[in-house]
Amino acid sequence: MPALASLLTVALSCAPASHPIVTEVYYDAPGDDTGHEFVELWNPGPGTALLNGLRLEAGDGGAPGRWTLRWIAGPGDSLRAGQRFVVGGALVTPPPQRTVSLELQNGPDAMRLVWPDGTSEVVGWGTHEYAEYSCGEPAPDVAAGSTLARIPDAAATGSNAGDFRAATPSPGVANLRTVDAALARGRLVLEPAQPSPGGSATLGVTLVNAGVTAWGLDDASLRVNSELLGTPVSVVAPPLAPGETLLVHVPLASLLEGRGVLAVRVALVGDESPANDSDTLLTRVGQGPLEITEIQFHPAASEGEWIEVRNRTRDALPLDAFRLGDRSGATGRVEAGAMLAPESLAVLAQDPVALLLAHPRLDPTRVRRVAPWSALNNSDDATGVADVVTLVESDGVPVHRVTYSAEGVVSGATLEVADGNWRPSPTPGGTPLSPPRELPPTPGGFRANPRRVHAAGETVTFAWELPWPSGRVTLELYDLDGHRTRRLAGPVESGERGERPVNFEALPPGLYLAVLRAESSEGTFTRVTPLRVEGAAR
Amino acid sequence: MSRVQRYQAIAVARLRLRARTLCAAWLALAGPVQAQDLAGTSPAGDRDLFALLEHALPARERGFAAAAATTRWWGLRELETRAVALGGSAGALRVASGLSQTGAPELGWTTLALAAGGVTREAGAAVRVVTRHDRDQPWSAARALEPQSGLAVGAGAWLEPAPGVRVWASAPQMRARGQPPPLDRTLELGVRAGGATAAWCTLRAPRANDDGERALGMVLALAPFEAWAEVRDGPLRGAAGLRASAGRLRVGARADAHPVLGETLRVSLEWLPGAGDEP
Fold this sequence. Notes:
heterodimer, A: six-stranded mixed beta sheet, elongated, B: 14-stranded antiparallel β-barrel
């Protein structure tokens, strides 16, 4: 029976017997192909194969007879039994046995091996008009980034279409590995994205069993190494069946402040493809060099949206090294300009010209355009979040991220950070390029200013002073008889002192009682202040 | 039974039926108004001097009456009301006048109120006129009648369709002009059963931003003391009062408790008409 099988294989093979065969052709890398293309040969025979005189030719399927020599093997080139031989560009990893610029065409094209004994093997891809460019039906033309791989490595169906299919490039290793643990590239996720120094985070790693053999518990392990970790972290990978993918959460603790690389590697005994075992994530622990200090997400005039940032460092910063975005993940580039001095504020604006017209006293050198601008949402979603303002470095490393709610923020008011807490700015239109206004003490804990307003849309500013450093505040309005008329604001997070402007449109005239209700882990706090609304008799 | 007696019995029966129907209609349609400027410490349904000025519900008793009260609204020192009232009668006619001042000058106002009405043994009705003038301007009787000052006209009536049963309706702000009153007061309907010891319920019609108000209360009389309590909804809260009489002199106190706003406290001192001086 083995003799019959061998006979059948020879009969159906596109490759000549007793010679190494083509197992992988990578002809279309993403972007510029130069240096990335390669052809992999494999010796399935029992003895060493000498390659001297072997010609590797590229075929242009546009017309008959267009074969061009790309490489010819020398006297020292040989291939031991079961080994692989890669001919490819200088950028192929791991480095090929012979470095050659192959310049293979994207289909319909072909390559062929011509042996000194006159035999040859042709591999063609795409739809061909001329039969010389393929063996049987040509293989499919694969997308950029994919390789044309013989799967399994010894496949011999009598046609390129039957022997080859698209796969992840794997120069120098088997296309179908018996034992192979891999990481899905570019899918490392750190949660939270920007953890605090000394704190902990979870690294999400997508693990793949790319072999044909399942592994059990304790067979595979994941190891994370980084300058952000005091010591490397290792965890046991769960069992995984062939072809399966699993998201593994790796806990990271006692993180060190700074910007660094989290390098992850999966280890499995007998792994046949080390090239797909690792991945990296560039990230940051702790605060970045810039911090967001004020957000204008719903301008009342036509000055456009803007974000105020502060240089936290002792060095001047180039603002064009940063990008600004929203929850969608899209970011815009900050236009170049003068360096931002230490401890200085700058405004990143949707429309700097309109903003400078609305605030003519602003220093124009510190107002920068961001393009494209990611429009910020003005209303909350079901989770109580309106949007997320994200500041990242040009390579994607997080710098600062602020999640905000738009509830209770009157149109035109900005959100600003004061004493570590975000609050609606008490200054109409915000305070671009200026620090938040310090709030004065509020005798009695709660007051309204003015206490007598006209019903036709006058604004009252409510100020409070809590008995705690922070709390959750709600403002309500009752009539003199004790019936709740409306909720004015909240619940919102507040520092020890807070202010909230409220517009009294469409409120019937009368004497009202404004109520401040605050809660914290230390208790509750309620204060009442009277408010007179004037107007014509009903 | 004579024919006259039979007609009288039929008439009383019809009167009681109409009163019950009217009461049921009132209860179905409306809702209690808390007094503001000239508020006393009496439970709902009492017809004292403040009830005439605030609710246009005249007292059945005849004679001279005087009263003074002070209120601290929801524990706010800057929102206190001080009120005095005088009243008298001539036959079935009842008249009263009152003066009050509420709140700090920045917020408050001065109120002058006049009320006049008539009573029989089983019914009574009155009208009230109230003028308000802001405290941040000098007060005078002439200014109180200026167009920009607040003016409100209201009316009320009560009826006793059966012995020990009293129903009433009060619309204290039927018409208003100038500066609006501090609280929008809608139609109030009430029914009270019993004598000195009694129970009552009141309903206030809805106004902007609410769905009206419902109240239940009872008073327990143990001469010379009276204690009463009342619960109201929107939000659920309560009020309680205590009064003590010595001859024609009566002192009272009332507390209203609110789950958010705190307490409103009120005390009063009254000189009452002579007992039994009825039409």
